[in-house]
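Dear support,

We are seeing what looks like truncated structure output for some complexes. This example has three components. We would appreciate it if you could run it in full and send us the complete token output so we can diff it against ours.
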Amino acid sequence: MSTLFRQGHPIINVGLQSFSDYNGSAGGKSVQVDWTPPAGGNRAAGWSLAQLLNHPAVERANEKAYAAFLAAQPVLAGIGVARAQLPGMDGRMVLHAGPPIAWQDMCGPMQGAVIGAILYEGWAADAEAARRLAEGGTIAFEPAHLHATVGPMAGVISPSMPVWVIENAAGSNRAYSNLNEGLGKVLRFGANSPEVIKRLRWMAEVLAPALAAALAKFGPLELKPLIAQALQMGDEVHNRNAAASSLFLKKIVPAALHSGFNAAAIADAVTFIAGNDHFFLNLSMAACKSMLDAAHGVPGSSLVTAMSRNGVRFGIRLSGTGEQWFEAPSPVVGGLYFPSYGPEHAAPDMGDSSITETAGLGGFAMATAPAIVQFVGGTPQDAIANTREMRHITLGRNNAFTLPAINFSGTPAGIDARRVLDTNITPIINTGIAHKEAGVGQIGAGITRAPLECFTQAVIALASRVGVAVPAATRPT
Amino acid sequence: MRADRIGDRVPAPARGRVHSVFERACNIETRTGELVTLLAPELGNAPHGIRLAVPVAPFGSWLIPGQSAMLDNAALRVPDAGIAVDLSGAAVWRGAVAAVPMGLCSMDPGGAAIAAALRELRATLVDRAPEQGFTPLLAARASARSAVDRAFASRLSHTLPMLAWATERHDVKAVAEAAARLVGLGPGLTPSGDDFIAGYLAALWSRAGFERDIDAMLQALADALAPLFLRTNAISRQMLSDAAQGRFAERLVDVTVAISGAGNVVEATARALASGHSSGADTLCGLLFGFAPDHVVPSLRDCPSRQPLPCAAQFESSPGRTAAIA
Amino acid sequence: MSATLVKIVPREYRDSVSLMQLSAMLGKLPGVEQASAVMATENNLALLAEAGLRVDAKGAHASDLLIVVQGEKSALPAAIEEAMKSLTRQTDDIGGEARAALRPRSIQMALKLAADANMALISTPGDYAAAEAMKALRLGLNVMLFSNNVSVEEELALKQFAREQDLIVMGPDCGTAIINGTPLAFANVVKRGPVGVVGASGTGLQQVTVLVDRLGSGISQAIGTGGRDLGQEIGGISMLKGLKDLATDPATQVIVLISKPPAPQVAERVLAEAAKAGKPVVAVFLGADPASIARKGVHAVKTLEDAARAAVAIVKGEKPRDSYADVPDLPAGLPKFADSQRYIRGLYSGGTFCYEATLLLGELLAEVHSNTPTRNAHELTDVWQSHHHTLVDLGDDVFTRGRPHPMIDYRLRTERIVKEAEDPHTAVILLDVLLGYGSHMDPASEFVPAIHRARAAAAAQGRSVAFVGQICGTAADPQDLARQSRALTEAGLLLTESNAQAVRLAATIVDAGVQPRGTH
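Here is the complete output from our reference environment:
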């Protein structure tokens, strides 16, 4: 018998609410879909999406990619120098956050950071010379993501900077990030004054070797359990890293003290880390990058493996569409601004740090960090609602990271580009706000959303790779 | 937190533990093995039920199986969940069914009303019930989608005529034998067979007010059925032991009241159908069966061994009438 | 050879709805033939054995949950895993709050709340409707596509995919269906019964289901196909599927097919299948000669009314009798027409009613004009202006651009009624009144004052006009059929049982008015 004639089954009503009402008064059951045109009304994307829904090739690919993501076991293996560690990093190359961007298109803070990096490397004597060098075309600018690396804000990394080395113990990939400089006048917000360069040198010459010695003593540090513990303590490891940074310090200090390394250096290093609640952010990001790279490159998969911003454009990548970026203008963040600043001072959203949301942390784990929603005047209930909302666009939940506020359920993780498009629910991102002029620094923090347009393009591209047809009638004119 | 109704079978004082938690109900198992059910206000009461006066958050958000609970005449306390339900203002509710005289001739106005009520009950069931459990039988819908469904239907097709026959002869042993084949049978938290038996017993208790033989049979039946109830889960077991003692859930009681002429059958039936996925429907099938087995198992209508109704004889002179009854 | 896998979950109490949803969800997984999640009681274990499932459930207790999946051996472990996942998923949240927190935004989300849904009703703007329908199909749901403006290419893609999945697409532009006794979109509340209907026309479907109900029988299922289904491009995919489903539906004894004449090859295909249905089939292809349709097992009729009559007759074991040629008695108290009053003016809200009326009237009278023209009737050149006998479908796109359909918004019709009454050539005004879900909640409140105004307008010029119509509705419809009939009859509308009867009565009245003059 036809499945249609089975008695007592509810219908799903998409469109006119009155049909649900009629059905109800006639004794039927129905579920009303709160419908808006999917893909923001882009018909071609909508039709591609429809064909990809429950598509066997995509489902299989996502299973594979998601399994690799969940299985990944990021371990902090040590510290090295970018030039020696990062794949494909050579010569005069400067890495930056987000999708590819040319020097002249970069926003103020990113240009400032690049100038700082040039000065740090000694490629130019002063800021003016550095600017000319950057304009001259002899420096290669590439997204950090292309080198298995992530950096917060400008994300600028040059060859002689120290980097964290993260190994995926359950796979074969490595991921990298730079070391966090703290708050105030720092390179990642575009500052490049002598004190900034001096601090960067100290980090390379004192902090990195001290940490390397401590890590050598401690052995490989598993990052997932540490993040899991921090989540229980009110961090979402993007905009709040207070607990994680403390936990990290607790592990590393005894090892550092027993490492036999210069005591004064260790004292300085520990003091530096203790003064920076965001010290763990770069580790959290690299851990996320490690998990997501493990899931990258599965043909047909609609799993989002990167969301990142270069301060001008917002880009995403899918596991199943290789190195292609799908971009849209980066949004200006609404949020809580420090006194005397407002949105008119803000650079558009910037940084690779949204890798944490891509991995189901940050905004996706907001339920555990109600302190964050205060940035936008929200309540703990809003925080829980945000996490819950993200469940509708993810492939599942990561039970390695559980959230006490919602009965220890796993964080929603593994963004499915199809679900984003189908529901018009875009990923939520907790973020810091940079001043649009170089070197001013952070002027606020808030919550933003990834632009839908990125997912629209991504789904169209995936559909063409999977080979689903777009009938003539729905092709855009 | 305040309760407005408390079932007359709720033991007090008692100590126990949270046994199972659902969105709008929670069972507490006492040390003596009874299950007391805490109910959200929108649900009907039960003989072992305590019903809250005002809506609360889903039970799962504050109650967890294993938490210890204490019950006395003043309150139900679950200290680990930080709750105390005030029972002092709760009215005692007695889940007894309404008496329904089935012996009346269908030409008697009262008899005709009851016959009409049963037809309405049946029609509403056929119309609104889910395609699971006993109801498909009623509508003669062969909805056997799987081998399990077929086995279920086949078992019913053997067991129900047996039960009808045993009931008609007031044969306690045979009723228990048939019931043994239904206990714990079929889908659902309270398996369909259990719901059916509860409904069936409700009909017998309704009839007992007017039929002395049924009344006598029920006294013996409680003992005969008790061991069978161990063959199903604790939630079903509590429902069935209450049923054997003549105590039933409020929604079911309301249907018997409506059948007796003091309410709207269609509305009461619709409310009763809303419980569980198919539990309400299965219970009502049992009820209908207890009153008029041939409404549930159409083949019984053609059964030659069935005695003619007493009033059929009165109209034998009228050929049209006889034809209609035969 | 299918295998069985069993999982016992100790002391797992789930409410019945969750258990049912769990079984439904497991049953839909790839490679799973059947699945059940029941309490592990003695009797349930015995039942599984009786069903031929070998279940090793040693140590299982009546308080345990027993999950059984049967199907391809390789698929079963994954299914059990999925079951366990879904069980933990249900416990790891705070009760039902998550449901309240966010209404479903997509079909996929809605399925989480209603895993056992078997159909999606889609009424989004046409630009997006095909995609929604495709999603529903891909998720295993049947589709009723109410939306219009779906391209033929999209319709074909949807229907071909549905055919592969053994699902049905009702539509696009499908306004009416009655599934399992529940009226969907614009439909009437009819009794359930043995007559199954598949129709390419919404109002056609309404007329037949309403008449079957009024004739004392009932409807098992009424399936819409959308108006283009029987065209060359689509090839009748939905009608063939509906036919097949009704043929195998135990509750259906007679099948009625409703359409305008299909493309010839499609007609052949449909009729060949109908002849093989194993049940009597009644076909009404409005505008086609019944003789060209009839064949063994297929009873062809000319009007919607006769389709309903034939179906009910066959159910009762009687021989169908056509009624379309019956001449109605002239009712008493008809107005005396002036010499100029020679014409019928039909103002329709149902497109199929207008088309059927045009067909019938075209055979009876000359000079019939309509915006739903037929072989015997002329195309109405100016739809706003009546000419000789005129039948207008006011649901045509020309009239509905920027305003609601005349089934809901009566303004165009009430204005036109008065206008026609003012025309000295108008003798009879012919109307249809649609009841049921979706239609105007009180048509009499619109028509009664309009009829009074029209009478007054005609009387002012010394004339009187007759009003004839039918109400397509049942006693169970939300509008209260009895009250509507009473109010309209009191206002002077001569009500007939069907559209065809209304047309014949109008023709008879005009004839009677004209002939006496001819003999002068």
